[in-house]
Amino acid sequence: MTKHLVVIVTHNYAAYVGQAIDCVRKQTETDWHCTIVDNGSTDDTVRIARAECAGDPRFKIIEKANEGPSAGRNVGYRHSAPSEYITFLDGDDLLAPTFLERLGGHLDAHPECGLVSCQFDRMTSAGEHMDGGFRSRIVPGLFSFPRQMKSSEIVTPFVAFFSSTGQGHFSIFRASVFGRTTLYEESYWSHEDSDIFCQMSLLAEVHALPDRLYRRREHGLNLTRSGRSTAEEFRRKWDFYDLAHPETAHVIGPARRYYYRRHEPLRDFKVALMTLKGLLRKPAVKEFKWMLYLIRHGVTLLVVGERHLKSDATPRP
Predict the structure, then answer these.
(1) What CATH code is carried by the domain that includes residue 26?
(2) What is the tens place of the pLDDT at every residue in 264-279?
(3) Where are the alpha helices (DSSP H) in 173-263?
(4) I need a surface site. Which of 134, 233, 282, 311 has the fewest CB within 10 A?
């Protein structure tokens, strides 16, 4: 069995897919195979990928209709040879040469860990370095007020992912744990990482390393579809997850209380303050109404917390 599976998902990334394939070839860890899943590209992505992979049996290419990034990742996982570890790479992004070696080595040394992630750098569409990105991990601190986890705290608790922080596909999954999840939620075109990280952290420890081993490209083709509706669907699923899975109540309950009594109301107040600063520079009725909504919503949550939630649907498995 190969140690690493790398799944590259592409959609109209003719300008970038060759670089993604090349960064996998340049890994210092050589025990890997790679499946490229093309989500219905209408440009030269597939032709370029085939030319780049010609004669290299470590690569496999699958073509399918565009059903979103989550479906592409699941297809790549299901239709690849077994491996010990799994990495998902977007077709416009890059891995540092030591990505598989460093994160895979961490999993080797920590059998209790089911998923390990790293920090990332940002680059322009031309591949030029931008400011370093930062994946925040927010958890309850003193008096349950939100705090940023230190880089020396490698074990990330479930509550960070429940609150939609700490996630990011710059990670390596232990295949034996990933296979026990329901895989990526295929209806999600965003927040899919938050969902799979929640699932993984209920099954094993999730670790985060400060190393910057992933390069994320910022350009006009980045996927942002249905962000708000997906966020609402994510909240509905996880707010009531313990109704369908009562064995998780001891984890879901405290996370839910923290999120609605501290995390979300304080976030509302922070955004309201930022909106106020903008209004002082340039008054606008729409922004003023938005600020008032945030303040009212934040105050309501401080008073009633998670008690405002109503499960009006059958909890999803």
Answers:
(1) 3.90.550.10
(2) 999 999 999 999 999 9
(3) 175-178, 192-201, 227-239, 241-244, 249-258
(4) 282
